[in-house]
Amino acid sequence: MAVRIRMKKLGRKHRPFFRICAVDSRAPRDGRVLEELGTYDPMIPETDARAELNHDRFSYWLGVGAQMSDKVSVLFRKYGPEGTHVAAREEALSKRSGPRVIPDQGAPAYVPSEEPTESEAVESDEVKEADATTETANAANDAPSEEVATEGGTAESEVATADEEKAGAENEAGEEEKSE
Asked: How far apart are the C-alpha atoms of 131 and 137, rounded to whole Å?
């Protein structure tokens, strides 16, 4: 049986995660594995903290004759026991495990004062007067409209007489239906 050390894809859409596994070379990518040897998370912001390898098991499988895939061999060269990025990885892991420091955002751009200044007091009086004027105008619009004089009387009286004529015509039609 030929053994390959390759990545098995996990995660979800737009959030990949990989396990580095020893697998029978004939098995599918996400199929049955012989042993899991580490992980690779490409979504971690610190590049050097993305890979995590079990060095003892890696050396065992390489001693037995397992072949690494291209991507895994790159990770092993960087983060293996004699890797080129081992010191950078240790530093990145220490930053990642420590407390997260959020920088100070500085002083706020605007802080309202307790007492209004003289110019603000004058402005607020003007605003109150404008609001009062607007309220009286709205109240005038909501009030019943005044009667408008026309040649034959007022406009409201003409509307009222037209309504009375309609009502009278409907009553007469109703009485005629009852008599029949």
From this structure: 10
Distance CA 87, CA 38 (A): 18
Partners of residue 68 on adjacent β-strands = 5
Summarised one tens digit per residue, pLDDT across range 16-45 is 999 999 999 888 888 888 999 999 999 988
- Spatial CA neighbour of 34 closest among 64, 5, 77: 5
Closest by Cα among 98, 15, 90, 95 to 52:
90
Those residues whose C-beta lies under 8 Å from the C-beta of residue 26, and which sit 6 or more positions away, are 2
Walk me through the domains of the chain, giving residue ranges and CATH numbers.
Answer: 3-97 (3.30.1320.10)
Task: Detail the DSSP E strand segments found in the chain.
Answer: 3-12, 15-24, 35-40, 51-53, 67-68, 149-150, 153-154
Q: How many other β-carbons are positioned within 10 Å of the β-carbon of residue 6?
A: 22
Task: State the DSSP H helix or E strand holding residue 121, giving kind and residue range, or none if neither.
Answer: helix 118-142
pTM metric for this prediction: 0.52
Token reading at 91: 């530093």
Q: Can you tell me which residue has the tokens 């599918």?
A: 28
